Amino acid sequence: MKCCIIGLGVFGRNLACDLAQLGADIVAIDRREDNVSLVKDEVSGAMIMDFNDTSVLDLLPIKEMDAVIVAIGDDFEKSISLTIKAQELGAKRLVCRVLSPMHERILRLLKVDRLVVPEEVAARGLAHSLLMRGVVDGFDMGNGFSIIEAKVPGLSGASLQDKGSVFKKAEVRIVTIKRLQPIVNKLARSAEGHEKRRTLGVPALDEVFQVDDIFVLFGREKKLRVFLEEYAK
Q1: 16, 28, 6: which is closest to 82 by C-alpha?
Q2: Per CATH, the architecture of 121-231 is what?
Q3: Contacts for 167 with CB less than 8 Å, ≥ 6 apart
Q4: What is the Cα–Cα distance from 8 to 32, expressed in whole angstroms?
């Protein structure tokens, strides 16, 4: 997958690094040299661009990109002009960060493929973590459904084979499990100070749940809340 990310603030920079780690071929662009320097070793290509001169995009194979993401977070006009330029160059898929209600209206008129409001996504995740016991993060899937990450110590020592009926009755699906790396001491933490975890993939029926596991669960919000009230103790 090839992507061009324009704007390397906190949102754009993290998106570029995350996509690169997942194997995507990333061209990262920003007007500030310090932002570019932060990602240049993580992505396929990084360049400084004066956002006032959209013609620079003519030099890039925009048509060949699977997606162009305009992630500028502080300049309404530049975001719009770069979005229009990417469209003119035949971008297959356009994703834009929304800066304001007016900005969103214009982007919708331009028929941008996807609009993203990072602050809203973060707010939803915080809302889930505040309202549901044990929740670390969450994502609203719409129509009352959510995917959440939660600690469920009440199930530790059991397996999916043992507790399959519990999940079925609760109408909650377990997607995967994030488990602490088997390293004890400071090495078990990342450079940011977070615990290192590995994703187990689709859990085997006989996989024994551990007390520090983070479960990735899917279901209706009301059902998830009831389930966690019972088992996230």
Answers
A1: 6
A2: 2-Layer Sandwich (3.30)
A3: 160, 173, 174
A4: 9
In the chain, the largest separation of any two C-alpha atoms, in whole Å, equals: 62
CA–CA separation, 82 vs 57, rounded Å? 9
Side chain identity at residue 207, one-letter code: E
Q: What is the pTM of this model?
A: 0.65
Q: What is the pLDDT of residues 18-39, one digit of tens each?
A: 899 888 999 999 999 999 999 9
**What are the structure tokens assigned to 130, written together?**
């505040």
Write the pLDDT tens digit of every residue in 205-229.
999 999 999 999 999 988 999 999 9
Pairing of strands 67-70, 94-97: parallel
Per DSSP, 62 falls in state G
The predicted structure's pLDDT at residue 125? 66
The closest alpha carbon to 78, from 123, 36, 32, belongs to 32
Please tell me the CATH code under which domain 2-116 is placed: 3.40.50.720
4 has a pLDDT exceeding 60? yes
Q: How far apart are CA 77 and CA 103, in angstroms?
A: 9
Domain segments of the chain: what residues? 2-116, 121-231
